Amino acid sequence: MIFKDDGTIEYTLTRSKRAKYVRLKITRTKGLEVVVPQTFKKAWLPPILKKRTEWIRKAAKRLELPAKVEDLPALIPDKIVLSAIDREYSVQKVAAASIAAKLIEAEKIIRTASGLLSIEIDDGILLPDDVTEGEQAELLSCWLVRCGKEYLPDFLEEASQEVGIPYKKIQIRLQKSRWGSCSGRGTISLNARLLLLPVESLHYILLHELAHVRHPNHSASYWNFLITLDAKALEHDVAMQDAWKHIPFCFSM
After folding, report:
1. pLDDT tens profile 63-91
2. Cα–chain-centroid distance for residue 7?
3. Which of 53, 125, 122, 63 is nearest to 91 (CA)?
4. Taking a C-beta distance cutoff of 8 angstroms, is the pair 89, 123 a contact?
């Protein structure tokens, strides 16, 4: 979310076939994104942005977005900390040949749908230096999902046994706007980014989703039940509003 020196607002305009009205989204990667119907005229936008200026400022401040695009943090970090499992990984950009030479020793081999390759080795992630930062971020996202599939099922199973609430199955993905969800059939989906959060935040989300197995809504009955599982559930829920602070720029929602 960027305000120019003259006070005007910098944004990305996205036209969507599904959009029925104007929607504003603020993220750490794109700043302000304005999603509009395909027939929407750009000339109609200024008064809408003017009306929402205060909301935009507050949202940008909450995300600690810089004043200018140029001041955004580096997309690819030097290290990634998976707080939930207390592990830290260095991130290095190296020649593709160096990655290929270490494939046999790699703990994880990461490959995207388009064929990009990286590896995890000796608590480090090696990224090819001859691709774009966007492609490197894609590789890191694939790596994070792999880590999620490795660790999150055990965390969920432990929480399930702790509170005595079974579930049908688990899915690990990189959801755009949710930390987790629970289907009516008892399938719990977890966001791989949960590994980046403190363990108490992860534990809260696990209990939050398990509670949905019994109460598939956010009614008063649901919250009352969740509090029996986690006495500090309401405090933890408020704290999740700032959970983005733990997410590196390359994994931002």
Report:
1. 666 656 566 677 899 999 999 999 999 99
2. 30
3. 125
4. yes
Rounded Cα–Cα distance for residues 183 and 217 (Å): 10
Neighbours of 133 (CB within 10 A): 13
Amino acid identity at 47: P
Length of the chain: 253
Residue 96 near residue 128, CB atoms below 8 Å? yes
Read out DSSP for 166-197?
Answer: --SEEEEE--SS-SEEE-TTSEEEEEGGGGGS
Would you list the DSSP string of 71-136?
GSPPSS-SEEEEGGGTEEEEEEEE-HHHHHHTGGG-SEEEE-TT--EEEEETTEEEEETTS-HHHH
Contacts of 163 by beta carbon, 8 Å cutoff, 6+ apart: 207, 210, 229
Cβ neighbours, 10 Å, residue 233: 19
Q: Which residue do the tokens 């994070």 mark? A: 144
Query: Taking the mean position of all CA atoms in its chain, how far away is CA 163?
Result: 27
pLDDT of residue 70: 61
Summarize pLDDT for 100-150 with one digit per residue, the tens: 999 999 999 999 988 999 999 999 999 999 999 889 999 999 999 999 999
Q: Name residue, tokens 């702790």.
A: 162
What CA–CA distance (Å, rounded) separates 158 from 128? 37
Tokens of 186: 């008892």
CB of 67 within 8 A of CB of 3?
yes
